Amino acid sequence: MIPFALALAACGTGPDPVLPAGSAAYDAIPEGNVFAPRRVEIGPSDTLKVTVFREPDLSLEGATVDPDGNIQVPLLGTVDATGMTAAEFARDLERRFAARFLVDPSVTVSITQTSQRQVTVAGAVTQPGVYEIPGRISLIDAVSLARGPTNVAKYDQVVVFRRFNGERVGGIFDLGRINAGLAPDIEILGGDQVLVGTDGLKVAYRDALQAAPLLNIFTTFALVDRDGNQSAGEPAN
């Protein structure tokens, strides 16, 4: 019998261990640590609906914000929406219309589509990819968009990366504890990257089971963990 040893030390088993974990992970990810009201600003490539009450000729449907954060508004021309929420932009348009064209105008603005509402989910999930965020979602929701973790996922090694003030920050979260209600869920924002780590031992065991039927010379195999402990495997068919 020839042992089939699998050294896990050489396997990529999960996220970078230097990232903060546990309660420190929540401090490392700015904004949206828990579900709470947050500021959603208009950004380039967003699509807006602008309604001017009783002024259909001044209203806009499907107006796209240009790369500089501007939008073209009837009578007003180029208007900068950078750094404003939809409600703030509506008030700004009211002031502009009132200053020159309308008496006591009423304007509503809504963001109908945004390029900032995508999340990347990768690692040990069923369908890795880039997903549109349907409203406000949590970490659990984001993993669900990718059809959930695979059977080799390491639930306590789920990383969220986020851009903040021009820098990439990240933290390691325990999806198992979040699912059980033992740790708070976090809100996932547009542009975030979620990486579900893998359990190296499970990966090695799975790969061994898949390889053994093809390598009939192996009748048994063993799993070796990072501490050098060996566990007996099932006989190969």
What does this structure look like?
The protein is α+β, with helices and mostly antiparallel strands. The protein has two domains: 5-38 and 116-201, Roll (Outer membrane lipoprotein wza fold like), CATH 3.10.560; 47-113, wza like domain (wza like fold, 2-Layer Sandwich), CATH 3.30.1950.10. 19% of the residues lie in helices and 31% in strands. It contains five helices and 15 strands. It has helices at 23-28, 86-100, 139-145, 175-179, 200-211; strands spanning 5-7, 47-52, 60-64, 70-73, 77-80, 107-113, 118-123, 129-132, 137-138, 153-164, 167-173, 187-188, 193-198, 222-224, 230-232. The strands form five sheets. It has a five-stranded mixed sheet with strand order 8-7-13-10-11. β10 (153-164) and β11 (167-173) form a beta hairpin. Mean pLDDT is 77; it is low at 1-17 and 214-237.
Jot down its keywords.
237 residues; alpha+beta; Outer membrane lipoprotein wza fold like; wza like fold; 5-stranded mixed β-sheet; 3-stranded mixed β-sheet; 5 helices; elongated; disordered N terminus; disordered C terminus; polysaccharide transmembrane transporter activity; signal; GumB; Poly_export_N
Cα distance spanning the termini: 13 Å
Low-pLDDT parts are 1-17, 214-237
Q: Which CATH class of the largest domain? A: Alpha Beta
How many separate structural domains? 2
The name of the CATH architecture of the largest domain is Roll
Shape: elongated
Percentage of residues assigned to helices: 10-25%
CATH fold label of the largest domain? Outer membrane lipoprotein wza fold like
Specify the structural class. Answer: alpha+beta
- Rounded average pLDDT: 77
Q: Order of strands side by side in the largest beta sheet?
A: 8-7-13-10-11
Number of helices: 5
Number of strands: 15
Q: Looking at this structure, what is the CATH superfamily of the largest domain?
A: Outer membrane lipoprotein wza domain like
Strand content: 25-35%
Q: What is the alpha-carbon Rg in Å?
A: 25 Å
Q: What's the helix-strand series? A: EHEEEEHEEEEHEEHEEHEE
Largest sheet: 5 strands, mixed
InterPro entries: Poly_export, Poly_export_N, Soluble_ligand-bd
Protein name: GumB
Domain Polysaccharide export protein N-terminal: 39-112
Organism: Erythrobacter litoralis (strain HTCC2594)
